[in-house]
Every structure is written in C-alpha cells, then in structure tokens.
Design brief:
Layout (H helix, E strand, L loop, with lengths): L7 E2 L2 H4 L6 E12 L2 E6 L4 E5 L9 E10 L2 E9 L6 H11 L9
Parallel strand pairs: 1-2, 4-6
Antiparallel strand pairs: 2-3, 2-5, 3-4, 5-6
Length: about 110
C-alpha cells in the first residue's frame, strides 16, 4: 500500500480546504451525464465528480481523486459502495479525520 500521498477524507464542506490535493469522498449519485457525475455528499451538499466511471454506478460511490475546486473532484478511482450506506457515520469520520484526530489519518 502506497502511503506517500494519502487521500484525505472529505465531505463537500471540507473539500475547499484541500483544492489541488488528493481526497476521498462518498457521494449519493444524483445523475451522470457524459464526463461528470453529480452527487450528494454525506453532509447533504452537492458535489461534481469529473471523469467517466469505469462501469455502472451503484447509489453510493466512493471517489478518490484531486480536489479541482471547492465543489468538484477530478476522479482517479471509483468504488461502488452499494445501494444503502450510513452517510451520517461517514460524515462523522470526515469531521474526526479533519479535527482533533487528524494526526491519525494523515
């Protein structure tokens, strides 16, 4: 496992802090059109994921890529997380990973 460039756990609100850096986020897919996917982040805000997924997407998808802007990620890796997912717990993980326990994650 390559740990030289870890992906930071983010929701839509935290994304703005990491523009230009590698991030990971889980979204609920709202729509997919051509070269981008619009989704709802675990904090209920909209995110745009740029890039073409490798195949059909489930309802919930983890995306790892570069934060393009405060509302978009340029995807490098897509992982289907199925059709049900505990968004509240993941959102709490994002907050912990960027707060008091940041040193454990990066």
């Amino acid at each position: 496992m390559d740990t030289s460039n870890p992906a930071v756990f983010v929701n839509a609100e935290l994304l703005r802090m990491y523009v230009g850096r590698k991030v990971r986020a889980v979204i609920q897919v709202v729509r997919s059109d051509g070269g981008s996917v619009v989704g709802k982040s675990t904090d209920e805000k909209q995110l745009v994921v740029k890039g073409s997924p490798p195949g059909p997407l489930s309802t919930y998808v983890e995306v790892i890529g570069i934060a393009d802007s405060n509302q978009s990620i340029r995807a490098e890796q897509w992982t289907n997380f199925g059709d049900s997912f505990d968004t509240n717990s993941y959102n709490q993980l994002c907050l912990l990973a960027n707060g008091e326990y940041k040193h454990l994650f990066i």
